[in-house]
Amino acid sequence: MNRFEPKGTPDMTATAAQPATAVGHAFEHGGDIARPGQRRALGWALGVNIALLVAEVIGGIVLGSLALFADAAHLVSDVAGLGIALGALLLTARPVSARHSFGFARAEVMAAQVSALLLVAAGVWILIEAITRMSHPVPVQGAGLAAVATLGLVVNAGSAVVVHRAQGESLNMRASFVHLATDAAGSLAAIIAGLVILGWGWTRADSVASIATAVLVLWTGWGLLRESTHVLMEGTPRGLDPEAVIAAMADVEGVVGVHHLHLWNLASDVPAASAHIVLSGQPTLRQAQRTADDVRATLAEEFALTNITLELEEGPTAAVLASPRTLPE
Length: 329
Description:
Blueprint lengths: L9 H8 L18 H28 L2 H27 L14 H29 L6 H24 L5 H30 L3 H29 L9 H9 L4 E13 L2 E10 L5 H19 L4 E6 L4 H4 L8
Parallel strand pairs: 2-3
Antiparallel strand pairs: 1-2
Helix pairs in contact: 2-3, 2-5, 3-4, 3-6, 3-7, 4-6, 4-7, 5-6, 6-7
């Protein structure tokens, strides 16, 4: 069996195979994930949410509202989540090194998972407190509750819009957006509860609003937790069909087999692939490199895959090693 790709770390492989028609590929993503627009959006959202948190805590104490305390508790997780998300973005901008040859792109996925855990924890706490308050309702000032919640709605909705515009495909930014959007929904529920208390005097509306907020927070938090875990476990990226990728590679002229295909995400929006491709006949090194370049161009055009590592094998091994469409066992 003839291996055309040099061995070594990604950076070493790139040096050996570059510059013209590289078979290997260096994962140099440190500079690619600077994302200054996302940093500005998160910084703005973090600042206004800290101010809102202080206002809601004071309002909850003065008005005796669990809905405001519930929203404030969620805001604590928001502020922590936004801070972690911002820190992760700063970390992903660091360049690759010999110790971290893939860079720090995965930091944003880890931040998203922490944010998801904070959401789930906040949802559980709100739910427990709301159920307890349903059995033992306390007086709540409806007008004050509605007023403070309106401020929260404006701040959270505005922050959610700012973060959403800078979101892209980043799971880290989406986690921050979900935090803010569910907070906006919680503020809306608190406004409705305040109006109900003001109009009909039904103080349990405060607890009902809190339960609705908790359910939404748990649902969104669980979804983010599943998705971030999928990325950290190096699952196949969303929207990529391994069979379709193999078929596209096998259709490239000069390729008679594909096996050991792996698809994963370095970060939520940075997909990567590696595969063994079996070449027809006994090609020269130049011919093998040209075929590899064709495979890479096909994957980039059809699947937007640009972070690709290929190992090339000679044709006589095809019957033993792989059929044209073979996934790992």
